Amino acid sequence: MQPDVTEARRIEAAPAIAKGPDLTVIAPTFNERENVEPLIAKLAAALDGVHWEVIFVDDDSHDGTAARVREVARRDSRVRCVQRLGRRGLTSACAEAVLASSASYVAIIDADLQHDETLLPRMLELLRREPETDVVIGSRYTEKSLSEGFTRVRQAMSYIATRLAQTILRAKLSDPVSGFFMAKREVFEGSIRSLSGIGNKILVDVFASSPRPLKFKELAYQFKARLHGESKLDTLTVWEYLVLLADKSLGRIVPVRFLLFSLVGFSGVLVHLGVLRAALVATPLSFATSQALATLVAAVSNFFLNNWLTYRDKRLTGWQVIPGLITFLLACSVGAVVNVAFAETVFELTELWWLAGIAGAAVSAVLNYATTSIFTWRKR
Ligand code: GDD
Ligand code: MN
User: Fold this and answer.
1) Who contacts 319 (Cβ-Cβ below 8 Å, separation ≥6)?
2) pLDDT at residue number 101
3) What mean pLDDT is predicted for residues 229-257?
4) Distance CA 343, CA 358 (A)
5) Tens digits of residue pLDDT in 122-149
6) Is the CB of 59 within 6 Å of ligand 1?
7) Whose alpha carbon is nearest atom 29 of ligand 1?
8) Which residue lies with its CA nearest to atom 21 of ligand 1?
9) What parts of the sequence cross the membrane (predicted)?
10) CA of 232 to the centre of ligand 1 (A)
């Protein structure tokens, strides 16, 4: 008899099923361990009275951020952790966290406390009150604050970046690169399958990928200084931003990765000629040896440029570089053989040397792109 009674008690004591949160706050993290608890405390204070949760989406930080989040999550059910392996990128990270949430409203905020979480209740209220508003954006810039504390060059760059985005998005966002905003769940659902996922500018990506123009409101805030950890966004952030914009405009015609791969290929021709000339002028090497050297240097340079620019999101690091370089060189050698054979055929048919040359180069570009995307920068 005894065990039955305890069993009955245990069932009775189980908590009633509670409904899910109305608001999911997504905080992307990469090495932000010391910011986890302060952020949760700030969210709890700001969102008093709201049924909310926070999802930390961590790209396998080596400082133990995910472990810290789970430690807190064990005693606080408002806290959740999504940990991604072998991938990087703020936009794709946030997209996965959106898919893990079921709330009607979703906000994105940096985990490093630089954004002003006290805006969240106002964002939520605006979205709830105004059925026509899709997104509320935290903006660092109202017209004049733009100039404060920025050098002229940064001002100009920031201006160009903003105008470029405004043209492509056909929306007059004052701070399109903002990483702080709240949207209705349908907004994300509409965009998510078309997101580029390139780089860190998720707001630009969401706007450019939306099947319909989005209605937005902006709330000004002061971007705060970082207390713990350091920024992950390096000089190539600007590059990724331009690639994202290219993908969202030209990308409808040609895949932007292929464009980049071809651009790197062109740079290889210049490297080749430079090395060939240097070897002929400055060393006693024969023409054939110089040509072989130039070919090798250009191929290696192409590999590193592609690894750095074209496949930034999947870039090979440490020891992975060795098999990467070997498969790249092998794939390109096959490409070169096909290039010559194809060009020869076209030349026999048309007797146009330039058409044959371009055709050979184009075929090997497509082939090299295809094979290296499978063998060198394979999907993990
Ligand atoms: N999961 C994941 N993966 N998170 C990342 C990654 C990544 O690859 N890179 C950065 N993060 C996280 C950081 O841990 C931080 O919480 C947040 O994304 C922003 O990164 P920072 O490195 O602090 O960026 P920032 O301060 O230079 O720039 C931020 O503010 C700008 C202005 O609002 C970002 O939000 C930019 O997108 C934004 O333009
Ligand atoms: Mn930051």
Assistant:
1) none
2) 97
3) 83
4) 8
5) 999 999 999 999 999 999 875 545 445 5
6) yes
7) 179
8) 231
9) 258-280, 292-309, 321-342, 354-377
10) 6
